[in-house]
Amino acid sequence: MRLSYIVLFVTFISSVSFGQRPYNPGLKKELDSILYEDQRYRQLVFSDLLKTKTDSISEVYKIDKKYIVEHLMATMQKVDSANLVRVEAIIKQYGYPGKSLVGTPANEAAFYVIQHSNHIDQYIPVIKKAVEQNELSFTLYAMMLDRSLMYSGKEQIYGTQAKGFETIDRATGKKIFKMIIWPVQNPKTVNALRKKAGFDQTIEENAKRLGVEYEVLTLQQVKVMQGK
After folding, report:
1. Which residues contact 129 (CB under 8 A, 6 or more apart)?
2. Which member of 55, 112, 131, 203 has the lowest number of beta carbons within 10 Å of its beta carbon?
3. Considering the entire predicted model, what is its pTM?
4. Buried b (16+ CB within 10 A) or exposed e, 173-195
């Protein structure tokens, strides 16, 4: 019996010494809910559901279908703000809530909340550390790094980010809304980099998934398109 107590005590001390944290089912449940809410409105707004089931969605939310997109976007922004406040508190208390603490896919919840905020540059070192500790997938860090670079007006690395803006249609001279894959640093090697990073689609396939026609563009070309 005494030996058993010693073994248990040493195990406990080792866990504390190396900063290991026990699995937290309560936090997992909360983060599962946060992840669901983060994705819920995006799946409606950025999918074909609004085109094919506008009447049904309008009925569910009791909103005239003319205003349903505006309503969903406003609701999504409110949810994002509330989620960010909670996720920041969780990170402050636990560090990044990775898979050893909450399992998968709950370990992705904090990432997506930050990815959909304007706090990316503040937390990208936290995300990178979580990846290095095998608490989060490298592909998610690559997505956040690409978004950070795009927001800074720089070329992305892995070609994960698309952006839309108004431009002039050369054929008609009229304003149109255009979606592009934001310029990448090395178009010729980007697919090799994507594969190494763990992505299972090429940049062309990813563009198609996002509903974008892939073009190899430079930052200067994009500036001209944006009228800058």
Report:
1. 96
2. 55
3. 0.86
4. eeeeebebbbbbeebeebbebbe
Block means of pLDDT (10 residues each) for the chain, 228 residues, are 44 40 94 96 80 80 85 94 98 97 98 98 98 98 98 98 93 92 98 98 96 95 92
Tokens representing residue 91 in the block:
């990170």
Structure tokens at 32: 């599962």
Residue indicated by tokens 């669901």: 36
Q: How far is CA 57 from the centre of its chain?
A: 25
Coil, strand or helix: which one is 166?
Answer: strand
Tell me the angle at which helices 54-61 and 68-94 cross, rounded to the nearest 10 degrees: 70
Q: What is the pLDDT of residue 133?
A: 97
Q: Residue 196's pLDDT is what?
A: 98
Strands (E), the chain: 162-168, 175-181
- Two tokens, residue 228: 């800058």
Where do we find the tokens 């956040």? Answer: 144
pLDDT of residue 115: 98
- Rounded Cα distance between 54 and 56, Å, is 6
Pick left, alpha or beta for residue 201 (phi over 0 → left; psi -120 to 50 → alpha; otherwise beta): beta
Residue type, 218: T
